[in-house]
Amino acid sequence: MDIDVLGALDVRENGASIAPTAPKPRQVLALLALHADQVVPVSTLIEELWAERPPRSARTTLQTYILQLRELIAAALAKEAPAGGAAGAPGRSAKDVLVTSPGGYLLVSGGGTSDVREFERLAGMGYRAMDGGDFPGASRRLREALALWTGSAFADVQTGAQLEMEARRLAESRLCALDQRIEADLRLGRHRELLAELTVLTSRYRTHENLHAQFMLALHRSGRRGEALDVYHRLRGTLVREQGLEPSPRLRRLQQSILVAGPETPLPADPHLPAVPSIQSDRSGGGHLVRAN
Which residues contact 14 (CB under 8 A, 6 or more apart)? Predict the structure, then answer.
């Protein structure tokens, strides 16, 4: 089974889609697919479908949705494989793929692909490369991880409380990987290449301090000191106006470092200015600043 949820939902068994078009069965499949090879409790599925006000017939209705999914799985298993490929495993039934377990249901992936698992694998490799000082490797692996995303997670699925929570978690993981990939590129001296991307990102994430710090560094290293300071002032205005907060002490130190770095002139070939902090993400979304060596 091949599972994609980092964008539109796409679940394929034996090369054929088993994703229903009806909203609620689609929700059930999305939650089962995200947690493939793990039992999803009936209570979790009911909460996803009806929140805190399930109908009396909730369990019976859920069983109906499971039966509908099994019909789609059975049809996929019965399909002939493409030329040169193997047909579905002999004797394998829809109940072997979508298993009823004590207290819940389990979708068996059978060793197929999962874009979430691949994203987590590649991102983990990227983080380890960052920790080891392998910035080219980190940039490459994190780019590969981010390329798996084709849109917001569960983009075409009606989401309840459970899927909404999972979508937020995945979005935070995506932002963290993006933050670290930009950090790796800054370490590699790609500051000019990052300017357009960071312009968009700081407009989208208007209070994300680490992205703004990265934008300030990229501008400063590109000889655009005044614009770097403008980014700080815009962020400060947004934070004060919307949250009643001042920028963090670390961001203020970055601003001061840029202020004392001298007038706006082309920077030395070395992208890591000794007077300006570099950025190291804490991988929790916000990031923090550390002094460059």
Answer: 76, 77, 79, 81, 87, 88
| Residue 68 banded pLDDT, cuts 50, 70, 90 | very high
pLDDT confidence of residue 275: 40
Mean pLDDT of 193-202: 97
Amino acid, single-letter form, for residue 139: S
Question: If you ran DSSP here, which 8-state letter would residue 97 be given?
Answer: H
Handedness of CA 244, 248, 254, 260 (dihedral sign): positive
At 239, list the tokens: 């934070």
Distances (CA, A) of 206 to 9, 176, 234, 238: 29, 16, 9, 7
51/59 Cα distance (integer angstroms): 13
Residue 114 DSSP class: B
Distance CA 169, CA 49 (A): 19
Report DSSP letters for 198-244, one per residue: HHHHHHHSTT-HHHHHHHHHHHHHTT-HHHHHHHHHHHHHHHHHHHS
Specify the 3-state DSSP secondary structure of 22. Answer: coil
Burial 10-26 (b: 16+ CB within 10 A, else e): bbbbbebebbbeeebbb
The pLDDT tens digits of the residues spanning 117-168 come to 999 999 999 999 999 999 999 999 999 999 999 999 999 999 999 999 999 9
